[in-house]
UniProtKB/TrEMBL annotation:
Keyword Transport listed: no
Matches recorded under PANTHER family: NEUROSERPIN, SERINE PROTEASE INHIBITOR, SERPIN
Primary location: secreted
Organism lineage: Eukaryota, Metazoa, Chordata, Craniata, Vertebrata
Protein name: Serpin family I member 1
InterPro entries: Serpin_CS (IPR023795), Serpin_dom (IPR023796), Serpin_fam (IPR000215), Serpin_sf (IPR036186), Serpin_sf_1 (IPR042178), Serpin_sf_2 (IPR042185)
SMART domains for the chain: SERPIN (SM00093)
Keyword Secreted: yes
Length: 446
């Protein structure tokens, strides 16, 4: 079972009736990492995540990692959606790092940007991030749970278990992986419970064999309500134009309010060389959704090479609070990333080979990472309410533009960040929003 100060046991209901409110963001992610022991066993990590964090020493590191991952993914996913959590990846790889030694350890520390830290200091930082995120006085809901499922009779280092408890608050559960269906159901139930049923069927009986020895699971769930709510009755069906100029109908939320907004130049003359950045805060003003939108005539791919950690900081420092009209799709995105390929391209290679040194996990030799998969789910909406016919506010905006308009009716970049620390929690792009049933009306009817 999952145990964490901010969580309840997995057999108890996690979400109370009436929890949802108008206007929120909900995120769940799954990160699956399988480590294979040649002739000896299999070590698997499955992670379901969503989060919020901060710790000044770690902020730049996580942001730099998020940018590295983003550019690698955009080079392989062409015009697909991208969504991932650099924090979830850092946490998961951090768990493996606890058991790594030698050159395997050096590769992980270098790629994750820990070279400037003292050996082992990153674990304290990760622990502090988790503690800060799950503080009870927060205006958002964030829960983190770590568990280590161990095959009956298989020995792993006592020190490794102690460090997992110390830095990741992981509890140990003994199971029999030969009873694959039973173990899969037990783990899946806990993962579903801690991700509001967003991540389902993470394990199947086929994932376990007679060689399976250890499964490590990390579940994180985040939900934040908008500081300024989108009213469901203002949602209408709207055309979203993709980069290939095809169109799809999406439910478009609307509101006019005060948000952090700025216009920036990309250094070109195309479409005026200007793009828009909007930051929408959640309750408490600590976490925000930052969005970057190119002009309609400019494909998002034209601006993506500009994305750097320093540019994200420049956006945050330059946007000003002002009245803005916002048109934002109500959408959900579910993405799966073959993280093994991504991490290898970034430079973490040895743990995926027979040369891996993961001897701090177990004294047995031959342990190496076999698979790494990252799954992310994002949903932004106004509590799923059907849109009623309401014409006044939106009709007037069609007649006269009195304030800046940001209309997300073509692909855009997203970044969920901690406004106080600058920490990047999630990053991605929306190329193909999946419309939910809105029951709304076309704006042209107004």
């Amino acid at each position: 079972m999952f145990l964490h100060p901010a969580l309840i046991y997995c057999n108890a209901p996690f979400f109370e009736k009436g929890f949802y409110q108008e206007g929120y963001i909900e995120i769940s992610l799954v990160f699956k990492l399988s480590l294979t022991m040649h002739h000896f066993g299999i070590f698997s990590i499955f992670v379901a995540l969503t989060a919020v964090y901060g710790t000044s020493d770690h902020d730049d590191t996580i942001t730099e990692l998020s940018v590295k991952l983003y550019h690698d993914l955009r080079g392989t996913k062409e015009d697909d959606n991208i969504f991932f959590s650099p924090l979830s990846i850092a946490l998961c790889v951090g768990m493996v790092e606890l058991g790594a030694r030698g050159s395997s350890l050096k590769e992980i520390r270098h790629v994750l940007g820990y070279d400037r830290l003292k050996n082992g200091e990153e674990f304290t930082l990760l622990k502090d991030l988790s503690s800060m995120m799950t503080a009870q006085e927060k205006h958002y809901v964030l829960s983190i749970a770590n568990a280590l499922y161990l095959q009956d009779g298989f020995h792993i280092s006592d020190k490794f278990i102690q460090l997992m408890k110390k830095y990741f608050n992981a509890e140990v559960e003994n199971v029999d992986f030969k009873q694959g269906s039973t173990v899969a159901n037990e783990i899946n139930a806990c993962v579903e419970n801690h991700t509001n049923n967003r991540i389902r069927d993470l394990f199947s009986a086929e994932d376990f064999t007679d060689l399976t020895r250890l499964v490590l699971v990390n579940a994180i769930y985040f939900k934040g309500n908008w500081k300024s709510q989108f009213r469901p009755e203002n949602t209408r069906t709207f055309s979203f134009t993709k980069d290939d100029e095809s169109e799809v109908q999406v439910p478009m939320m609307y509101q006019k309010g005060e948000f952090y907004y700025g216009e920036f130049t990309d250094g070109s003359n195309e479409a005026g060389g200007v793009y828009q950045v909007l930051e929408i805060p959640y309750e408490g003003d600590e976490i925000s959704l930052m969005l970057m939108l190119s002009r309609q005539e400019v494909p998002l791919a034209t601006l993506e090479p500009l994305v750097k950690a320093s540019l994200i900081e420049e956006w945050a420092n330059s946007v000003k609070k002002q009245k803005v009209e916002v048109f934002l799709p109500r959408f959900k995105v579910e993405e799966v990333v073959n993280l093994k390929d991504t991490l290898q391209r970034l430079g973490i290679k040895e743990i995926f080979s027979r040369q891996a040194d993961l001897s701090a996990i177990s004294g047995d030799e031959g342990l190496f990472v076999d698979k790494a998969v990252h799954k992310a789910f994002l949903e932004i909406n106004e509590d799923g309410a059907e849109a009623a016919a309401a014409t006044g506010m939106i009709a007037s905006s069609r007649m006269a533009v009195l304030y800046p308009q940001v209309i997300f009716d073509h692909p855009f970049f997203i970044c969920i960040r901690n406004r106080k620390t600058g920490s990047v929690l999630f990053m991605g792009r929306v190329m193909h929003p999946e419309a939910l049933n809105s029951g709304g009306h076309d704006f042209e009817e107004l």
